[in-house]
Each structure stands twice: as C-alpha cells, then as structure tokens.
Specification:
The structure is a homodimer.
Chain A: H1 9-27, H2 30-37, H3 41-48, H4 51-65, H5 69-74, H6 79-96, H7 104-107, H8 117-143, H9 153-172, H10 177-187
Helix pairs in contact in A: 1-2, 1-4, 4-8, 6-9, 6-10, 8-9, 9-10
The first copy, chain A, binds a DNA duplex through α3.
DNA sequence: ACCTTTTCGTAACAAGCGTTATTATATCGC
DNA sequence: GCGATATAATAACGCTTGTTACGAAAAGGT
C-alpha cells in the first residue's frame, strides 16, 4: 500500500551514474543530480540514501553494465587476447559517450577532500579486484604454457590496467578514438610470447 | 615603503602546491590552504589572486621543480633512454612523498564541477605540451635512425605518457615503488628497435 | 615624528553544499 | 468512501565554500 513511485529507480540511477562519470563524486552536486534524473532531492534520498550510497550503487551499476568488458576479456582463450580485450575495451568505453569520456572508476575520486575518502577507497578496492582477477587469469595462462614460465603475472596485470587507466585519462582530455587505439596496440607490442614456439625475428 | 611581508611567498606557494597535489583543485579548500601555508586568507589573495590563479602558479612551480624529469629525459641520447627516463621519473615522483602520491598534473582536475573547468583546461594543455615535446624528440630520433623509419612518433609519445599517467593513478591508489618500477620496465619491453642493426631472436 | 603606503587578521559576505522537516497528494485494504 | 501508508514537492536547515570590507599594525621617506 502507499503511494506508488512516479519514477523508475533504474533510470534515475543510470542518470546519476552519468553525472558521476562526467564530474566525479565531489564534482557532482545534488543540483546536478536532480536535473539529470528529473527527481527531486528528497526522493533521491528515500530511494538511494545519501550521496555516498548513491555513488556506490552507481559504481555497482557501472561495473555490471559498462565495465563488464573486463570479465568478458578474461574469458578469452589466450593471455594476449585477454590483454587486448581489456585495452581495446578501455578505449571503446572511454570514448563511447562524448559527454562522459574516460572511466568512472578513474574519474570518480582520484583526488579530493576528506569527505570523498570513502568513495576513493571504494574505487581503489574495485580497481584492485579487477587487477586481482586479471592476475589470476595470467597465472592460469602461465601454468598452461600460454605465458612463459618466468612471467611476472602481477606485473603484467598492473601493466595492462596502468595503460587502461592512462588511456582513460587521455580520453577525458579529449583524445580521439584512433589515437587511443594506436596507444593500445603499442602497449601490446611487448607482450611476452609463449615459450613453446620457436620465434625468429629479423629486421633490416 | 609600506609594511613588509611576514611570510615567504615561495614557501607559501610550495605549501599550497602540496595541498593541490594531494586533494586536487576542487578538493583543496582555503581552510586547507591556510593551515598548510600558515598564511591567512586575505594574504593569500593579495599575494596570488584568487584560487584559480593560485593553482596556475602552483602548476608552474610543479612543472619546473618536480615534473622537470620530462625535459631532462628528452635530453637523453636515445629514444629508448628518453622513454625510460619519463617512465622511471614518473614512478619516482609519484611515490616520492607518501603524503602526496601520484602526479599533480593528473590529480589536479581530472573530473569536477563546472567551476574547475579552467583548471582542467590548464592541466590538459600542460600535458599536451609535454606530449608534443616528446613527439618531436622521437621524430628527431627517427630522422637520426635511432627509431625505425616507419615509427609512429605521435603514438609512441602518447603511449609513454599514457603509461606515466596510469602509473600516477596507481601510485595515488597506494601502489608500491617496486610494483610501479616493474610496470615501467614492462612498458619498455615493446619499444621499437633501431632499424640499422640486425636483430635475431630465438626462444626455446 | 608625522604621513603615506602596504600588509595583517578578524569578521563578515552571498552562494552553494548535503541533508531533512513538513505538508500535500496519491494509492491500497477494508 | 475512509483510514492507513508511502511518496511528492516545497522549503528550510546548518555548514562550508570562495571572496572581500574593514580597522589595526608596521615599515619607509621626508
């Protein structure tokens, strides 16, 4: 019983996600959120709690609806394809919407006042989760001979995500898709070759 | 004539720089700046103008006193050494101070409200300057045969700085120096080899 | 020793922030 | 239709933001 909600909670969350994506946690004001969602302040509070919990829910949604290219890449069959999937996915997502470039996971709260500390911590933890999943995938590849036996999988995971983050920073600065795709391809140039094939290179 | 200043302008600017470095442009409040500099608000205004001009002066100082590892790297003798100098320099600076990790050029204003737009634009322009200088250096290397004739120097410059930015993001998340150094080394694995030497690789 | 000039520090400004009381409105069970 | 319940929107809350009047204090020139 009671009055029924006049707005769709998921639509409102999606709109709020967009604001956080563009302006970050602290840069997004409730005035912005009200305009973007079309929902008045008290309704946002009753539906999502305070700003921090709203941001966390937006991050959840971002992880499952936008940053899902990472788990998708992890399911690819070779470590190199995984790395490629992450990098190309980062380029694609970071440039998909011209009004919210870059990555919410990076834009959200890189630096800020003390009040943004919990949001920052949540983003750091989320990025660390992705990195751990990537590292485990590379470790599996190493055990399967898909990566050289002496590969440093933690470094490879950190490297791939570092490039992805750098791409997100550059996308936020307005870099073109083509430029960033070239960066991603360059990043794959030094990818370790599997140890059980004979490779001979020669350049003039 | 007139009363003499009781604080050192450069010391105050240095302290303000530290606050911007840690909290970014919008995250740094005048309350923070007053505490860090030991200078009251009106004195900061009379010495530096408003918050935006204070930030721009802090960025200038950052460029010349901290981010000078980039022009230093550019003076190295080979393109690979240049890339190494930028990447290792980014790691070193991003982890030099435990209370202000990462890079002011990235932390300063990646995302934010509309009021941070000019600070964002200044940071973007500054990073673009560094990238252009790096690209020109690589073009010189290419013309000297230090890089292959078909090298895409714009991509190489964007790539090196993308990794540097990604390293800065990870440093801000608390990554250890050793981890980031390993990332930087991995980033150099695919660096193009000079075209006038015969290279033969063989792995078992 | 005064007068001018510059800086200092307190205190205030309007505007914006995140958050919430409060009242009105719409829906459901009976 | 009536009472119970949940949401709607207006309006305000206290606090912080960046910025600035204002009067007190200190320095130099004549």
């Amino acid at each position: 019983m009671g009055r029924t909600r006049t707005f769709d909670v998921n639509e409102a969350l999606e709109a709020a996600l967009g604001v956080f994506w563009r302006k970050g946690y602290e840069g997004a004001s409730y005035a912005d959120l009200v305009v973007a969602t079309g929902v008045e302040r008290p309704a946002l509070y009753s539906a999502f709690g305070n700003k921090e919990t709203l941001f966390l829910r937006a991050l959840e949604r971002y992880a499952s609806n936008y940053a899902n290219y990472v788990p998708a890449a992890i399911e690819r069959s070779t470590a190199r394809d995984v790395a490629e999937g992450v990098l190309f996915g980062a380029v694609e997502l970071s440039t998909r919407f011209s009004d919210r470039t870059g990555c919410l996971g990076v834009n959200g709260a890189l630096a800020g006042s003390d009040e943004a500390e919990q949001a920052r911590a949540a983003l750091i933890a989320w990025r660390a989760d992705g990195e751990a999943a990537l590292r485990r995938r590379f470790e599996r590849a190493r055990s399967e001979g898909d990566l050289p036996a002496n590969s440093d999988c933690a470094t490879l995971a950190a490297y791939v995500l570092a490039v992805a983050h750098g791409i997100a920073v550059q996308a936020k600065a307005g870099f073109a898709v083509d430029t960033l795709m070239a960066v991603a391809r360059q990043a794959l140039e030094g990818w370790p070759r599997s140890g059980n094939t004979l490779v001979a290179e020669q350049r003039l």
